[in-house]
Amino acid sequence: MPSDEQKKRQVFMISDGTGITVSSLGNSLLTQFENIEFQKNIIPYIDSVDKAISIRDILNSHYNTTKEKALVFMTLLNPEINNIIKTANACIFDFMYTFLDPLEVELKTKSSDTIGKAHTVVDNPMYEQRIKAINFALNCDDGVQMSLYDAADIILIGVSRSGKTPSCLYMALQFGVFAANYPLTADDETHHFALPEILRSYKHKLFGLSIDPERLHHIRNERRPNSTYASLQQCRLEVNEVETLYKNEHIPFLNSTRYSIEEIVTKILSMAKIQRKIL
Amino acid sequence: MPSDEQKKRQVFMISDGTGITVSSLGNSLLTQFENIEFQKNIIPYIDSVDKAISIRDILNSHYNTTKEKALVFMTLLNPEINNIIKTANACIFDFMYTFLDPLEVELKTKSSDTIGKAHTVVDNPMYEQRIKAINFALNCDDGVQMSLYDAADIILIGVSRSGKTPSCLYMALQFGVFAANYPLTADDETHHFALPEILRSYKHKLFGLSIDPERLHHIRNERRPNSTYASLQQCRLEVNEVETLYKNEHIPFLNSTRYSIEEIVTKILSMAKIQRKIL
């Protein structure tokens, strides 16, 4: 362990599966302590007694060396594996049994303790929905394959680099939603933005993305440095035009500047009243 | 509420942000009770007192109608909002304060109670890493732009429809990993699979995907029904060839058949010893 990491508080996020659930809640909790530096270790697939013992040894050895208990967040369903980690000299937060035990009381039934069950979804119709949604997003990226728009749940529109593609991919992967996207550009003759005729028949499916011109300038400049395309003037012009278009056409829109992809997507689905297809 | 949903136990997953964390742990917990049918309601962005009151009213009205308490899973950081939901006549599981309170004791500091902080990452270098990784996956999908392979963290190989593209996109979105993919096909002359010369210089980055022939047949048949490409015979031949290639060339590989995208990706990263770039 490098010496600058010794000052950080060690956190082990231990899972019998992918580690996605434990790190999702673990990171939310740690973000609440912004004055403390954490060294995060995500440890997936602890699904055997041997692996559990080796993690317990690491935790004990950390305590013996530093005299400081590591924080442990864990989602371990197998009681034997769970109990091995619990005997470590560490500060344990059990994300599963903390709630499973009272849930068993409330639901008047025992839990099934099946390792990794939550994510084994291959036989689940939602798995196919998800793959189809990914293919749809790829096929309908950047204004291509508009013949498929009948099947779209939503069509994102916006200027180049305003976040359409990542948003569509995330909608597909996480929510199984069929999301297309179409780039808006100025009309060659009028130099103004107008809604393309082809989109009019899908107007109820349209959702606009906007972005602060300064942020757009930064993003475009990474792609094509010092181009007209990336200039702050051009970005201001396009954002102004596109927001005017959304307002005139009564198309709902979101300024994505301050948000992560997760936030952009969940806000859009909420505003557009689109149900997620994967629960 | 339709009558067939009345028999299901109502579950409300309530968040002040996207709802991703609360539904991730919530779904893991519910999966442990496979004999009970749940009606899941994911409710994001409960970030005001007014919204909290309206959810409390819904929960109380559900109890008054059915005499059964809804299950509530929640990640609500604002104490005022949190307390409003807690007064509802429901069975409350607080995913945040259950751990925040003891964490404050252990860390000898108060938490900052900042709503939605966990996901507001625009000013974070990880945000740009993520967008770059998505662009990389799109640019390097299906064997194109091999000139970019120097920048790849990993190059997935496999037969058509074995799950390369969704896996690369998920690696980019969730982990910020630069993942390319390259489709393997039979040599036109020998009719056998061989490792393309261009991939030899990146051999240390290669990771193979395999899949059960029956599953591949099913997936391909959805795409091109009754084609030679989709026939069980062809799928058996290709899978056999590709696995022989992986073994002869000592390329690590994974049979993806029984796994979700999350599992495939986390297993690959673990086997290939690639660190996630987003924590």
Show the helix and strand layout.
2 copies of one chain form a homodimer.
Chain A: H1 3-6, E1 9-15, H2 20-30, E2 38-43, H3 49-66, E3 71-75, H4 79-86, E4 91-94, H5 97-107, H6 125-139, E5 154-158, H7 164-175, E6 179-183, H8 197-200, E7 206-210, H9 213-223, H10 232-249, E8 253-255, H11 261-271
Parallel strand pairs in A: 1-2, 1-3, 3-4, 5-6, 5-7, 7-8
> Which pair has the most extensive contact?
A-B, 76 and 75 residues
Q: Average the pLDDT over all residues of chain A and give the rounded result.
A: 91
Distance between the termini of chain A: 40 Å
Biggest β-sheet description of chain A: 4 strands, parallel
- What proportion of the residues of chain A is helical, as a percent range? 40-55%
Number of strands of chain A: 8
What share of residues are in beta strands of chain A? 5-15%
Which structural class fits the helix and strand makeup of chain A? alpha/beta
Oligomeric state of shown chains: homodimer
Keywords:
279 residues, four-stranded parallel β-sheet, 14% strand, homodimer, 8 strands, alpha/beta, 11 helices
Describe the model.
The structure is a homodimer of 279-residue chains. With 279 residues, chain A is an alpha/beta fold. In chain A, 44% of the residues lie in helices and 14% in strands. The first copy, chain A, has eleven helices and eight strands. Chain A has a four-stranded parallel β-sheet with strand order 2-1-3-4, with helices on both faces. In chain A, strands 6-5-7-8 form a four-stranded parallel β-sheet, sandwiched between helices. The longest helix of chain A is centred in the first third of the chain and has 18 residues, at 49-66. The first copy, chain A, is elongated, with a radius of gyration of 24 Å. The two termini of chain A are 40 Å apart.
